[in-house]
Amino acid sequence: MDNVYTFTGYSVQSVSMIVGKDGLIIVDTGIDSASTKKVLAIMRKITTLAIKAILIAHEHSECIGGILVFMKEGCPRIWAMSNFRDEAYSFKREGLSA
Ligand SMILES: [Zn+2]
Question: Which domain of life is it from (predicted)?
């Protein structure tokens, strides 16, 4: 599949990009803005298509920590499981930050 890219080694979580005909889908966002900015810079060497959506695998910080970097590129849709908020709530209840 030459329209799917996975970027590893920038943080503990890989960030993936699916290139469609008129836009991109991002799968997970990395753990923080600093590492995700590096990933985005490489993505932009591959394509300048707009980010249409972000798919979040689950509520942990390694999946959502870099989301603001992609949000600043536009206003993409964010797709997550229906119980995302419930899981994030219990995560915070335990004294951890998402
Ligand atoms: Zn996780």
Answer: Bacteria
